């Protein structure tokens, strides 16, 4: 078999994931990439190698004999790349390094108020710079252009970027106490509801509009403003309700904070371009994954106690 000039680590990761998950759809979901992008990358690698890697079936895909050989070698190659990057991280230790993290305005408090301070306690020599972006597309552009090493953003992202799921966020409805609603709230109740919304044209408004379009609801804009510090004040004044994220709800005492059923959620993750990460970026990625695991464990323990 002849190796094409375009073979890359992204294609190898996609092929290994497809072999592990049995379908391209499941592999794409696990990697948080679009399924067509994954399928296209696998087909391109098959063309470059001149062999069929997977035999398609009604229930999914199965490795061909050539595919088994390629996947076996791909695992070796990916392990070697990770080991080499690990040697680089161990040699430099991140001393005096700068880490650039891109994010959107709605997720910036997550970085500056939670993740970066904890990371900085153990990595005091690292300078962390936040690259503020106006929406997910701008985040992707910053990574591609090399203006940021990592990004905290909504998933999924385009297939040319690597995604590491971080946390699933719950969207809640914050209302004046006088607003009577079924609890939990059916998403359809948002149709015609008076809402306090970010200003039109802003990245935050684009997030909310996409969420509303997904559930098929058209609320009434009672207030449209990017003065985030005033949103809860307008809710207290009875001007409308507010859609926001449960983990970012501070100062909502006296207001009704309600969940939706079915829940309205979004997955956020750490994202980077498919190239070798600087050691300090690898350290931050490992730290963020451990932070997410700790949070999941903390949430699981009360649930386990309830069952017992």
UniProtKB/TrEMBL annotation:
Which segments does the entry list as coiled coil?
A: none
Q: Which SUPFAM superfamilies match?
A: Periplasmic binding protein-like II, Winged helix' DNA-binding domain
- Superkingdom field: Bacteria
The keyword Transcription appears for this protein: yes
Please identify the protein, giving its name as recorded.
HTH-type transcriptional regulator HdfR
Q: Where is the HTH lysR-type domain?
A: 7-64
What are the entry keywords?
A: DNA-binding, Transcription, Transcription regulation
Annotated InterPro entries: LysR_HTH_N (IPR000847), LysR_subst-bd (IPR005119), WH-like_DNA-bd_sf (IPR036388), WH_DNA-bd_sf (IPR036390)
Q: Does the keyword Nuclease apply?
A: no
Q: What GO molecular function annotation could you give as one example from this UniProt entry? A: DNA-binding transcription factor activity
Organism per entry: Actinomadura macrotermitis
Q: Name one GO cellular component term.
A: protein-DNA complex
Q: Which family does it belong to?
A: Belongs to the LysR transcriptional regulatory family.
Task: State a single Pfam family of this protein.
Answer: LysR_substrate
């Amino acid at each position: 078999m002849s190796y094409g000039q375009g073979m890359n680590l992204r294609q190898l990761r996609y092929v290994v994931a497809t072999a592990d998950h049995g379908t391209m759809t499941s592999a794409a979901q696990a990697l948080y990439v679009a399924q067509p992008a994954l399928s296209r990358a696998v087909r391109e690698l098959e063309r470059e190698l001149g062999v069929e890697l997977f035999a398609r079936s009604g229930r999914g895909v199965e490795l061909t004999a050539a595919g088994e050989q390629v996947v076996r070698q791909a695992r070796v190659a990916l392990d070697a790349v990770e080991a080499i990057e690990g040697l680089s991280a161990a040699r430099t230790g991140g001393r005096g390094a700068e880490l650039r993290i891109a994010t959107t305005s709605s997720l910036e408090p997550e970085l500056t108020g939670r993740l970066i301070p904890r990371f900085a306690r153990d990595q005091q020599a690292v300078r962390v710079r936040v690259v503020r972006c106006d929406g997910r597309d701008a985040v992707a552009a910053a990574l591609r252009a090399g203006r940021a090493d990592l990004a905290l953003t909504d998933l999924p992202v385009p297939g040319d970027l690597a995604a590491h799921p971080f946390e699933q966020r719950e969207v809640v409805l914050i209302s004046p106490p006088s607003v009577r609603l079924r609890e939990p709230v059916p998403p359809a109740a948002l149709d015609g509801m008076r809402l306090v919304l970010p200003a039109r044209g802003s990245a935050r408004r684009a997030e909310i509009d996409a969420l509303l379009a997904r559930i098929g609801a058209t609320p009434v804009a009672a207030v449209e403003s990017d003065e985030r510090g005033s949103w809860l004040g307008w809710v207290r004044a009875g001007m409308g309700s507010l859609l926001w994220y449960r983990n970012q709800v501070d100062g909502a005492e006296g207001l009704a904070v309600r969940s939706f059923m079915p829940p309205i959620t979004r997955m956020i993750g750490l994202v980077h371009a498919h190239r070798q990460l600087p050691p300090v970026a690898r350290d931050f990625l490992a730290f963020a994954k451990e932070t997410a695991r700790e949070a999941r464990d903390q949430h699981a323990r009360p649930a386990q106690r309830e069952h017992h």
